[in-house]
Specification:
Blueprint (H helix, E strand, L loop, with lengths): L6 E5 L16 H11 L3 E7 L1 E2 L4 E2 L5 E6 L2 E6 L10 H18 L7 E6 L2 H14 L3 E5 L16 H7 L1 H13 L2 E4 L2 H10 L9 E2 L11 H13 L9 E6 L8 H11 L6 E6 L5 H7 L6 E5 L3 H8 L4 E4 L15 H8 L4 E3 L4 H9 L2 E3 L5 H13 L1 H19 L1 H21 L1
Parallel strand pairs: 1-2, 1-7, 2-6, 7-8, 8-9, 9-10, 11-12, 11-14, 12-13, 14-15, 15-16
Antiparallel strand pairs: 3-4, 5-6
Length: 428
């Protein structure tokens, strides 16, 4: 049966778009947009001129870019910001939403809108538009605002933060109530959205994980990346047991425990090495702490081809967090886990919630205790000394990715859900 062609609006700022360059890692909305366009739907992605990742303006005015005949990106202008936690970012969010609302009525009405949450402001505009125009609107929940924001700042300030976020909480409840349905990157996120909307989960609600669409680098890019790691001696020995990490190294990401585990393993007779790639405010501190450890490398930020090369030299992928730093936003499977699993790396993770359950359900790694360097070291030794168990975990990792997290499956399922919601709306 032929698929009915739908006009679908996607609303998501602060995420890379295909025109940002080959070195940029595309995320959920970009992968979903491509899947929709491949299936023949007409796609319009509304986003901001300001590129959150690079903190630069893509354009100095509103702009429209055709990605393909049936897929275009509408950039609406908004002022930029330098710090993620700042009044300038608040102004950016409000400006994008205000400008988006001005633009929507100038476009032909879509069949359905899918708006990513956060930001609350853009989702509010999307839900308001959908309610006014009779267009079904789905809110795709990636993070829990304002719940997550309550955890920011010192303990003594949290009551003040919570009080200050009361207007946002009211707005989020109103948005979720107006939406036709909610999508969550986890079941708990989906249930949170329905609860915020004052209702039970229904047929228009669903959860789909962050799907990952593997895109190998070019031969030239991979050769350069391989040379980079070769120069640093990573994977020089065939028997080297590399534990890797890559991505943002933020306040939750516990490189200290990894460094301490490396220290415990330094003088053993097994060739363990930790490669912790990424940037963040504490990286210089970590580099100093590991300066005397030949089995630790903190190279700073590396590009996607270097990640591709690194995971194929590694034995396990690390997802460490500091004790007590975990919050509701972590009740999902983080992006880096997808790349670990795709490469067949068992995942050693301190994340609770969905990540822990996924590892246990599929036998593709092992949960680690936050802050337990000795426990992490012991797990690495056990995996090194039991090649049969290691091989089983590695095989399970690849299978789990292919069956549950591959973007082709995730975004096909999400697309079918969007089509079903649009069809139900037409029948009403």
């Amino acid at each position: 049966m032929a698929r009915e062609r739908l006009r679908i609006w996607l609303v998501k700022a602060h995420e890379p778009v295909p025109t940002d360059g080959s070195g940029v890692r595309l995320l959920r909305m970009a992968m979903f947009a491509e899947a929709l366009a491949e299936a023949g739907h007409e796609v319009v992605w509304w986003t901001s001129t300001f590129f959150h990742g690079g903190k630069v303006q893509r354009y100095e005015h509103d702009e429209t870019v055709d990605v393909r005949d049936n897929y275009r990106i509408r950039f609406v202008w908004a002022p930029g910001y330098r710090k993620n936690l700042s009044l300038a970012r608040v102004r950016n969010h409000r400006a994008v939403a205000r400008r988006l609302r001005e633009q929507l009525d100038r476009e032909s009405k879509p069949d359905i809108v899918v708006s990513a949450f956060p930001t609350p402001e853009l989702c509010a505009v999307s839900a308001e538009y959908g309610r006014a125009e009779g267009v079904p609107t789905l809110i795709d929940i990636r993070d829990l605002w304002p719940d997550f924001l309550y955890t920011l700042g010192p303990d003594w300030a949290r009551p003040l933060i919570k009080a200050g976020l009361i207007p946002m909480a009211r707005g989020v409840r109103r948005t979720m109530a107006r939406a036709t349905g909610v999508i969550g990157i986890s079941q708990s996120f989906m249930e949170w959205g329905a609860t915020m909307g004052g209702r039970k989960v229904g047929p228009n609600d669903a959860h789909f994980p962050l799907g990952y669409m593997p895109k190998p680098p070019t031969a030239e890019e991979l050769a350069a990346a391989d040379a980079y790691w070769d120069e640093r001696g990573v994977g020089r020995r065939d028997d080297e047991f590399i534990a890797c990490y890559f991505g943002i190294i933020g306040e939750c990401d516990d490189m200290a425990t990894c460094i301490e585990a490396a220290r415990l393993l330094r003088d053993g007779n097994r060739p363990f090495r930790f490669v912790l790639a990424g940037m963040g405010p504490r990286v210089p501190e970590y580099q100093r702490a590991a300066a005397d450890l030949p089995n630790v490398l903190l190279p700073g930020w590396v590009e996607k081809p270097h990640i591709w090369s690194l995971v194929r030299r590694s034995k396990v992928g690390l997802i460490p967090v500091f004790p007590g730093s975990v919050d509701h936003s972590l009740d999902a499977i983080p992006n880096k886990a997808h790349e670990y699993l795709y490469a067949g790396l068992p995942v050693l993770s301190a994340y609770p919630g969905d990540m822990e359950r996924f590892i246990e359900r599929h036998g593709c790694g092992q949960a680690i205790q936050p802050g337990d360097a000795r426990g992490l070291a012991d797990i690495l030794v056990s995996l090194h000394d039991d090649p049969e168990r290691y091989a089983r975990l590695a095989s399970n990792a690849k299978t789990a990715f292919d069956e549950h997290l591959h973007g082709a499956k995730v975004y096909q399922g999400l697309m079918e859900h969007v089509e079903a919601v649009a069809a139900r709306a037409r029948r009403q």
